[in-house]
Fold this sequence. Notes:
The structure is a homotetramer. Chain A is α/β, with parallel strands linked by helices.
Amino acid sequence: xxxxxxxxxxxxxxxxxxxxxxxxxxxxxxxxxxxxxxxxxxxxxxxxxxxxxxxxxxxxxxxxxxxxxxxxxxxxxxxxxxxxxxxxxxxxxxxxxxxxxxxxxxxxxxxxxxxxxxxxxxxxxxxxxxxxxxxxxxxxxxxxxxxxxxxxxxxxxxxxxxxxxxxxxxxxxxxxxxxxxxxxxxxxxxxxxxxxxxxxxxxxxxxxxxxxxxxxxxxxxxxxxxxxxxxxxxxxxxxxxxxxxxxxxxxxxxxxxxxxxxxxxxxxxxxxxxxxxxxxxxxxxxxxxxxxxxxxxxxxxxxxxxxxxxxxxxxxxxxxxxxxx
Amino acid sequence: xxxxxxxxxxxxxxxxxxxxxxxxxxxxxxxxxxxxxxxxxxxxxxxxxxxxxxxxxxxxxxxxxxxxxxxxxxxxxxxxxxxxxxxxxxxxxxxxxxxxxxxxxxxxxxxxxxxxxxxxxxxxxxxxxxxxxxxxxxxxxxxxxxxxxxxxxxxxxxxxxxxxxxxxxxxxxxxxxxxxxxxxxxxxxxxxxxxxxxxxxxxxxxxxxxxxxxxxxxxxxxxxxxxxxxxxxxxxxxxxxxxxxxxxxxxxxxxxxxxxxxxxxxxxxxxxxxxxxxxxxxxxxxxxxxxxxxxxxxxxxxxxxxxxxxxxxxxxxxxxxxxxx
Amino acid sequence: xxxxxxxxxxxxxxxxxxxxxxxxxxxxxxxxxxxxxxxxxxxxxxxxxxxxxxxxxxxxxxxxxxxxxxxxxxxxxxxxxxxxxxxxxxxxxxxxxxxxxxxxxxxxxxxxxxxxxxxxxxxxxxxxxxxxxxxxxxxxxxxxxxxxxxxxxxxxxxxxxxxxxxxxxxxxxxxxxxxxxxxxxxxxxxxxxxxxxxxxxxxxxxxxxxxxxxxxxxxxxxxxxxxxxxxxxxxxxxxxxxxxxxxxxxxxxxxxxxxxxxxxxxxxxxxxxxxxxxxxxxxxxxxxxxxxxxxxxxxxxxxxxxxxxxxxxxxxxxxxxxxxx
Amino acid sequence: xxxxxxxxxxxxxxxxxxxxxxxxxxxxxxxxxxxxxxxxxxxxxxxxxxxxxxxxxxxxxxxxxxxxxxxxxxxxxxxxxxxxxxxxxxxxxxxxxxxxxxxxxxxxxxxxxxxxxxxxxxxxxxxxxxxxxxxxxxxxxxxxxxxxxxxxxxxxxxxxxxxxxxxxxxxxxxxxxxxxxxxxxxxxxxxxxxxxxxxxxxxxxxxxxxxxxxxxxxxxxxxxxxxxxxxxxxxxxxxxxxxxxxxxxxxxxxxxxxxxxxxxxxxxxxxxxxxxxxxxxxxxxxxxxxxxxxxxxxxxxxxxxxxxxxxxxxxxxxxxxxxxx
Lengths: 325, 325, 325, 325
């Protein structure tokens, strides 16, 4: 039996990746695509490689009240614009919101699918985590759960590929010629992902994340995200790795590696890679998390959440191996 | 029922892409992987994102006489080294050779799977086409078959991503710092792919390809290949497009597009895109072909050939949409 | 003695490169910078590495009638917008127009500085050649001048870095995520540079360029441009190289090389590299030309033209070697 | 009057950049170039854009005892190989060692040219700083000198372009296809640059750098280096910026910026950019330093040091503005 899925925000990078995953999903059937930037065009006009059976689906203008019958809606709208619009979607349509408006919002479940799958199963309103939180929290969770680091002194140095800035209006700062060969720190001390990271650290540890520091950087690559995290703690590297292997035992999409992870390991997949390096003498525990910012960092996790809310096996349609090189 | 597949040359880019496709293939079971560069290591040590069920498969040193029982062997060995070695493989093991040694060689079928699938079904020894021929011949075939261009005056200007140069021994010319921001013509008037292109043009047209010109260029990108082809002919653009749509009617992996194709349309897929632009007044027909040099240009077509020789539906395991962006 | 120079279009890539070259020029003094996108900001706000003596120069809104006293104006405005505006500049201000409006226009000298320097010396209105013509014509000129190729059958396959598309309004097609790993043919059979290429071929050869074909491609790199050119002729490779060495004897910025040129050889410089490969048996002469599209292809040649019209040594301020890697 | 300069290690990236700078230097005359990888070839064969007057200089095999008469030798040899060889250079030849063997070694002056120029003037043996230390220490020095941060708790998250890994033997890990779209942490807790960073922190602050953490990352770009640094301190952002402006008042190559610096600002230049962001409430001071790893991070600073030891103005030949875009 197929479930009917819609995607809104199909013109953006998150929406496009959702399309790729839904098109290959054995239990989901794409019946609706909306995106103001491409409204009126067929899917094949925007995505020349789309499967022939989807080629002629016409992209619609996004009107929440006039959706076709849907089981699930994946919404990839700019942060700040989704809350009002999604409130108008009929309650019987389940929603996974890839945007930022509903993270830690009332009535919405925060969808860290690899850490809290049980909270998500069967729910109706899921706030998909941000890309940086997906990587950082996946790496931190085992340490916080076992009390191996101090929750109040965490420094996250994040690096993301430029698709993380969104397709937007084509801001020339994100143009090829200006972004290539350029590494750019931004959003210092105030990035929009701070609250969901802090909130989750507190949930996982029971302590305050008051000293959290998070610095994102744009890296000249299309996809890929690495969080390099500096914590205080007296655990050894081996203890951290063992904690992570316990924490993620049996979880399909998390890989705990001895070597520091590289972003290319995850390209095009829903995988997250975590590793650790510690020096008890310096009261230092380093954690590293790698994801594809459009995979586990956006559409991959969104499809995993969609599977969970529809009570399907969480990995359905997400088994594709990373693309290398 | 699963067929037993082996890959030799797993350390290289073609072998790695074959691994990705076989790992996701519903009817093939990877039971053997060999590669001198990685012998003795587990698959997961070379490919950190490989599926857990394949993680512990140990990469072996390549000894043609001591293979495990196999139905199909995909061989991705450097051109010049595969002929002697593959001659020692037992005859009951079917082979798809991604290397260049057997193209248009006696006893081997040239595996242009989208053009001559019937020649391939059930065969035992397939020479997989080179990456440039895969793109150029796919674009040219409809024109040659309908006599719309002169076979004796074809100029192919080819551009490939750097993975097309192979992983090799790490030649510093292909190092990131020297290849980035660099566009390099090479192999002028004498590239190794010339004979198979000329031979196939002659087969398709019945005429001589004596005036063939082919100039490859290395482009600073990992994957992707475009052949821009200049021919003599009096057909219109519409006639060329119509010829291609007739020629490829019902073929799953060929897309005929009105707009000139871009390499990113094919990334990570087995698709080929072809388009045309003609000016009868200048006696000019331009043909364009785009493939992922590791997809349709190597491992994708190899798996398509493996499907055909095993009498499986040719698209099995190859339905994945391109990765964008 | 210093000459007073102004730049209009300072926000764009051509204007920015002009700024870099003028800032290091021993005889030119930048006294005026205009650009609507940055008007009201200081130069240092747009170009953080600008020399301290220029840091506080305020970028003005471009009003042709209210210029400060200037000896030379370098204009880097979008094609289609410069003709009307530059007509309003006082006649005593010499102009080098980097845009396309005045190429082969009455009253303007076409500034192919390495081929026709004598036509430029002391003039007042120079139309700077386009980037593709700069590369292609430099490679073709010696062959045309000596009658080694047929002017009526020339095929130019051009490849440029993405800065060649201009900084524009940040069209998302030129965004990093969509341009990276993408090779894009465009402007088929009708690119805006066709007329100046054809016109110059005719001047150089005395024959008709009626059969000219020109296909530009966008390559995922910031700078660099290669024209691969296919001609009919019976000359040998050695004859072509010898012709080029004769033609460019004593010319400072042209390098004739035995090996096919690579775009990185020219990065950041005013150099052009040309080479040839011929096969008399196939009636084939290949010519190749490499430039930095912002150097010899735009601002470098513009400063060379500015030197010539001011009767300075043409290489003044342009001696910097290419940046490698 | 020209001073006679030699470069050993001309085949590498540091040596190549030194060549570019020396070729444009008004007081230095390149009379000797050595490099085992290119011995016997002319400079123009390795550097096709080199100035004609240097084109025919033959690259020699490196034999320290048989140098021509030289005033200064710039040595860009792999760390671990320069100490023994440079000990054999006659004492009357002044040396700037771009390699790592002599940093904080007896008899050698550590050449942080923008911070301690007076220590360098007239000296004979200079150890050029590493690329990461050049960026990190430039950013930290003002804070340490004024006691605004604790020297014992500094975390440096460093990111460099891939030319920083050297040209080496063409290790395939640094090949284009494997490095592109890949961000790689390495050398965790033990990078070779740690001692010179720690030693200099201690000199500048008078305190112990015992808690220093330094994590380098390889970023998919050719040039550029950013150090993002996390410190403990109660200063405000404004206080940090003011301290830096005091510390570097009148220094030609340091730019203190309000906005966080981007690597492209420095490309091809000898500039360093520093900025700061602080939150006294979190006991946090962030410092950022940007350099071109081959400019201020290697050859640019080496030429600055060569100027100082020859008692020339330190900026001679280094005034070129960054290349943008």
